[in-house]
Amino acid sequence: MIRFSTAGESHGEALTALLSGLPAGVPVDLGFVNRELWRRQQGYGRGGRMKIETDKAHILSGVRHGQTIGSPIAIEIVNRDWKNWEEKLPVEAGDPAKHQAVASPRPGHADLAGALKYNFPDARYVLERASARESTSRVAAGALAKLFLRTLGIEVLSHVIRVGRVELERQATWEEIVAVAAKDEVLLSCVDPATEARMKEEVEEVSRTGDTVGGVFEVVVHGAPAGLGTYANWDERLDGLLAWSVMSLQAVKAVEIGRGVTAAESLGSKVHDPIQYASEESSRPTRFTRPQNNAGGIEGGVSNGEDIVVRGYLKPISTLRRPLESVRFDTREATSASYERSDICVVPAAGVAAEAMVAITVAGLAQQKFGGDSVGEMQRNFRGYIDQIRKY
User: Pick from 5, 94, 123, 280: CA 20 to 30 A from residue 25's CA?
Assistant: First the structure.
């Protein structure tokens, strides 16, 4: 079973990820892992923190001579900003006078709920762990899951389909998504240049008013065979697992599989994907095809061989340069919410983090279905399954 966990605070010494369950023999390209971390930091509208941090993965265990060895993988990502916080957030008691309190909770954050839950006098410790900085660890773990999926011919990428009021009004091809993810200069990760330019204008307008803006990203799993997930138990359905994994990301407030939102207001005859059959074999795992993919590659909780499509709806970042009304923790007096250095738009970065969560989820289901303690064993099992479903 593939499992992962993360640890670390936003301004702590380092972030860590622990990933277990990958088979032995997965080629590990550290350059690829670091590029994934770089991608998470990009996008028009990012804040000052991105000018401080240059995230790099330091693998401590589980990888030797460029391959996984079947044991848990520990990854460390150092926070360069730690030098500015070492006396403010010491492990030992330290000097209370140097503690930098978050004196008034910020609407939209975990500040108030977390302080009440853990009986904190301010929201500093809540902010430190609830911060989206934590997603850095997820991206590192997800990069290794992606490298594993590649051994089975499965790829996971994302692109942005909406920023504020500006939306991509057509379907993106897989080739376009690959191309936008490969760029060395990231604007807003939209496959259409004209739409991306209008998205940029939206961010600029919001920036001038001291506000923030959200949007929608789309994650696509390309090359996954039919048969991942199951309808047999409620907690093993692929769509449910993907919704859970993407919704767990900071600021994601809704998740859509395929055309789930528009399907709710459409007739069944316009939503469900007709099934066709190709008389000749192709590179596809099965001969069953569909002229469209409204289901997002999942039917009945099981992948059907089409691209798996998951969308995340991201709320605007909650930290505003023009803070909303709040209340002081100590006096209960009305005041403005505390302000921490923040972003204006993070939709492209959220898409990269969602790729990681989707990759980890799909990798776990692939490991369960095809088994094997080594990549070679799993690939044999995978090929046998593909041969089976191609006979239909």
Answer: 5
Give the domain CATH number at 49. 3.60.150.10
Residue at token pair 């990854």:
75
Closest by Cα among 191, 172, 195, 173 to 183: 191
For the stretch 237-250, pLDDT in tens is: 999 999 999 999 99
Instruction: Say if pTM beats, i.e. exceeds, 0.90.
Output: yes
Q: Is 108 exposed, middle or buried (0-12, 13-18, 19+ CB in 10 A)?
A: middle
Looking at the structure of the chain, the number of domains it has is 1
The CA distance from 202 to 271, in Å, is: 32
From the list 127, 154, 133, 284, the residue with the least C-alpha distance to 219 is 154
Tell which residue, 280, 261, 263, 279, has the closest CA to residue 271.
263
CB atoms within 10 A of CB 123: 28
| Angle at 198 (CA atoms; ends 307, 207), nearest 5 degrees | 110
Task: Report the SS3 class of residue 315.
Answer: coil
Please tell me the predicted confidence (pLDDT) of residue 318: 85
Residue 41 lies in domain? 3-390
